[in-house]
User: Fold this.
Amino acid sequence: MENQKEKTTIVLFSGDLDKAIAAYIIANGAAAYDHEVTIFHTFWGLNAMRKDAQVPVKKGLLEKAFGWMMPRGANKLGLSNMNMLGMGPEMIKHVMKKHNALSLPQLIELAQEQGVKLVACTMTMDLLGLQQEELLDGLEYAGVAAYLGDATQAKVNLFI
Amino acid sequence: MENQKEKTTIVLFSGDLDKAIAAYIIANGAAAYDHEVTIFHTFWGLNAMRKDAQVPVKKGLLEKAFGWMMPRGANKLGLSNMNMLGMGPEMIKHVMKKHNALSLPQLIELAQEQGVKLVACTMTMDLLGLQQEELLDGLEYAGVAAYLGDATQAKVNLFI
Amino acid sequence: MENQKEKTTIVLFSGDLDKAIAAYIIANGAAAYDHEVTIFHTFWGLNAMRKDAQVPVKKGLLEKAFGWMMPRGANKLGLSNMNMLGMGPEMIKHVMKKHNALSLPQLIELAQEQGVKLVACTMTMDLLGLQQEELLDGLEYAGVAAYLGDATQAKVNLFI
Assistant:
């Protein structure tokens, strides 16, 4: 027991840029304090895990529609608030750059470097027709059972 | 201590279909792993607990207005994202059916069968003028004190 | 161990009136049960901490724009749902008054009286150009490290 690391889990449900930034700042902070950290990406939170480029995979019509309507990757997310037809995200990115804050893609990279476990929810992938080739490398694929396994051992569990 | 069950609590504040589905999937998962699970429905989260049919109860004008404006039951909820004037929820329901995923009303029924404690926040009911007759059978009625009593004994506490 | 108080933390990320009310009701409830409670205000959650009146401080153009676009104080927040061009918040405030429920500014005051630790996220303040003079008196100023320090000692940790 003494040697066990603190554990922290985050369910990232939201596809909003600002919420994803908050999730990754908390995750990177916890990892820096040597916590074992899991981010479980479900529903719209999976959008932050999509690759920028379109990946040629076979899909049905509805799945193509979801793929087309949802933002492709961490650079394309909108804001939960003051999105203003896309001006809001650019303002936030601008001030973050000005203050030398890490961008969301950089925060995700840092999380991977720090060993944060990034999980893609397989049930959501099925529903929305997202395939592993379309998501970032280095993810784990799991469902709610694996999330609960981590969460019951963690002290800090957030739903974002 | 050895014999105590793990406890999990969820505050369901949101009235969005996708968030309610996420809450009930986590709750049912935890119940399947033999956790004692509480879902505390507050604010818009109460809408998922409303009966489909209109129930004749005496109300003031403002309470009638709230009752009329808020979605009546788990089948009527919108999405947090890509709602698209109601087309989004139908798309989600369609793909869930296609993948044999349980619908929200089915997830709620399963939760009740598994003994998940479904609580309606009495303060919100007072504010919005919702009466017990208008909500599903088998709910408990309580306030923030009861929620905190459960949450302080639980390891996984989420606000959705 | 025996004498230690229960601890509860809330990250208030949202700038929505209804979510801020929920956060402060839970926080005040927990404080009434003698928990040590921290509310960490980040991103739009900082808007609830702004003073009503404009405070003359030196700012760049972009920071002025943020200051002008974001709601100034707990009385100006919108709703997450049914905002209806500002009619929703007035309806909620009206029913809360009618039922003798505390308003958000009163809930914040009560929290301060009960010793709830209200923290303003310094990183967000930097990004949005908010200065201490513009925020309520009696706040603490800290970052994610301090939040994690509190959260790892708490049983109830919510992200709202």
